[in-house]
Amino acid sequence: MIEVKNLKKIYQMNAENQVFALNDISFTAETKEMVAIIGSSGSGKSTLLNILGGLDRVYEGQVIVDNKDIKDYNPNIYHRFKVGTIFQQFNLISALNVLENVLLPLKFGKQLTGKESEDRAKYLLDKVGLSDRLKHKPNELSGGQMQRVAIARALIAKPEILLADEPTGNLDSVTGKEIMHLLFELNAEENMTMFLVTHDLHLAEGIDRKLFLRDGKLVNNI
After folding, report:
1. DSSP three-state, residue 82
2. Assigned CATH for 31-61+74-219
3. Other CB atoms within 10 A of residue 2 CB
4. In the chain, where the domains are located
């Protein structure tokens, strides 16, 4: 379970002015739960995502994962194995092929043997429909295919938490729906907690749990 307690992130603009990027945010999320974080630009979505991902460690309040404050985790272990992130921009390495891109996070740790790593990568690429694209480079793929590679890469280390940051933002509507369907399926099969960050209410359709952010605060709707 994930528990966020009285989370505050303040930017001190000058001696007199400060901005609350997050203002006393509290919520819980259960294992296997899929949670949509919805809000317009500037609402605090990205700030919350960065904190959940362990990228921003300067804040007030607590984020508890598996009964442990995330600040008490080794940052490298947390980033590589506790949490996976899907970015809007894909962030694939152009010089690497599909299989190599998916395997990349495991190059920095010994969680799996070489054969186990490759088997895991091939399994995930089959799940996302790219088993016939293992040796292709990113520039040989469509936008939807690149996002599918990014999803497989985010899942390679079997994270307990998956953060999806506007995962369909660079895709057409049809491909976006396919990616969302895939995320629903993988969320159930991989037994992880997923946070989907979006400004689009339609994208969050089918997700029972929705957190609405406005001006750094949780609200009932937007």
Report:
1. helix
2. 3.40.50.300
3. 20
4. 31-61+74-219
